[in-house]
Design goal:
Serine Threonine Protein Phosphatase 5, Tetratricopeptide repeat; elongated; mainly alpha; 8 helices
């Protein structure tokens, strides 16, 4: 029999919060997005299945019998939602943005991950302002999620860099325009500020 506590790296008898925290940390570590185009992706996928199995076993065992039906149905719907999100992530990676958006629009639960994925879809479509709004909402809903925060920070940095680049270009245009005007004025007066070749 597998030692589920050992798989999650926690001590036997750990609290629900400790189990959940260890689970979230490991899922982030072994998430398929971390191993895209990596020869270790199969191993990471197997490890993630093992982590999910351990988490399910420990959380089901730690619930009281009165709540077990509720937890099973919640876990089942949560797993369906997670598999939907994994399919959507795969569609995005494959460049099938419209299909990913359709699946997201069919999902009524607008969770943090839903907002994150919708933001990525809009970014892929070139709708940066809308994409950024969805990413911000995802970060507001789950401020400790590294993936969401990292993506939003990257988008904000790109936006800031683009603004600086555009403002530098505008300054250069102003300088060039000023030189051309000065040269024209000098030529009108018989001088030549910028000599022709």
């Amino acid at each position: 029999m597998k030692n589920y506590y050992e798989i999650l790296g926690i001590k036997p008898g750990a609290s629900k919060d400790e189990i959940r925290s260890a689970y979230k940390t490991l899922v982030k570590k072994y998430h398929p997005d971390q191993y895209a185009n990596n020869p270790l992706s199969d191993l990471a996928s197997e490890k993630l299945k093992e982590i999910n199995e351990a988490y399910d076993a420990l959380t089901k065992n730690s619930t009281s019998s009165g709540n077990s039906n509720y937890n099973r149905s919640y876990s089942s719907s949560n797993n369906n939602s997670n598999s939907d999100y994994q399919n959507i992530r795969l569609l995005i990676q494959q460049g099938r943005i419209n299909q990913a958006e359709q699946l997201l629009n069919q999902n009524p639960a607008q969770t943090a991950e839903w907002n994150y994925l919708m933001g990525v879809v809009f970014l892929q479509k070139g709708w940066h302002d809308q994409g950024r709004q969805y990413l911000q909402r995802a970060v507001q809903m789950e401020p400790t999620n590294f993936e969401y925060r990292n993506t939003l920070n990257r988008i904000n940095t790109q936006r800031h860099t683009a603004r600086n680049y555009n403002s530098q270009n505008a300054d250069m245009c102003n300088i060039c325009g000023g030189l051309i005007c000065a040269d024209c004025l000098c030529e009108c007066c018989g001088g030549d500020l910028i000599g022709c070749c």
